[in-house]
Amino acid sequence: MTPFRALVAVVAFANVLALAGRDAAARADRATPAVAHVVYGHHHLNVTSVDAHRKFWVDGLGGVEATRAGLPVAMIRVSNVLVLLRQQPPTGVMADSLIPQIGFTVRSLAETAKRLNAAGYQVTNADRSAGVVIAPDGLAIRLVEDSAAHEAIAARDVQFSVQDPDAVQAWYTRTFGASAPPTAARGMVALPNLSMIFRRANGRPAGTRGGVLDHLGFEVDHLEQFCAGLAGSGITFDRPYTKIASANLAVAFLMDPWGTYIELTEGLNPIQ
């Protein structure tokens, strides 16, 4: 190869690298779900009585009350997630909804059951490694023991009851970057703080909005860019990206294609 041709080849290769770099930067700027940092942040509940739920979550499960100026809801921190309580009688029955049950890991099921019993709540199968407790307003919570857990209690999972589990799983994987842990059974994907379990429903479950578990809350880094990426992929927002200056918070709301209501936040439960 002559020196001139060698120089031309080098310049051409440099141009290819530059174009590739600009393309990569553009993809990063769009903050697509595959590269955004998304964790599970909160359960948002509609409740008949905030005081009754406060007793359950604090006295029964050991949560800690939290406050946030500018937000018209009560808040309980349960280790890695927030539980938001909005005084509004829920509609429907949780068992008939897209999410019939949520789960928490506990270090000692016996100790947790004892504490719940003292607060007036009964745990079924408390003599085994997992049990169920029904919170006020029919909120069903599965408690799974893990003696090696770092925290006395922590969010574990959300269980979906859907007509097409594979399609729902694919949507959450594509939209939020959830992935299947190496040892996960079929029908399960995970994000930091939460696993999502997808099971087949016999009928057509009701959507979550208005129920005791009104919506799921995901905390997202660079939320504005993330929302732009979702909009570009064809997702429609019920409430587009909005800054709430009084609470130093940004939010957006959307519905998954099957009726699960979702809130995206930045600054509510900051990513560690």
3D structure, described in words:
By secondary structure, this protein is an alpha+beta fold. It has a domain at 39-220: Roll (2,3-Dihydroxybiphenyl 1,2-Dioxygenase, domain 1), CATH 3.10.180.10. Helices cover 26% and strands 35% of the residues. It has 5 helices and 15 strands. Mean pLDDT is 87; it is low at 1-35.
Task: Give a brief outline of the structure.
This protein has 272 residues and is of the alpha+beta class. The chain has helices at 3-29, 50-60, 109-118, 165-176, 223-232; strands spanning 38-47, 64-66, 74-78, 81-87, 101-106, 123-124, 130-134, 140-145, 153-162, 188-191, 194-200, 213-220, 237-244, 249-255, 261-266.
Spans with pLDDT under 50 lasting ≥5 residues?
1-35
Overall 3D geometry?
Answer: globular
Radius of gyration, whole Å:
22 Å
The major sheet is characterized as: 8 strands, mixed
Helix proportion of residues, in percent?
Answer: 25-40%
CATH superfamily of one domain: 2,3-Dihydroxybiphenyl 1,2-Dioxygenase, domain 1
- Tell me the β content: 25-35%
CATH architecture of one domain: Roll
CATH class of one domain: Alpha Beta
What are the key terms here?
272 residues; 5 helices; alpha+beta; 2,3-Dihydroxybiphenyl 1,2-Dioxygenase, domain 1; 7-stranded mixed beta sheet; 15 strands
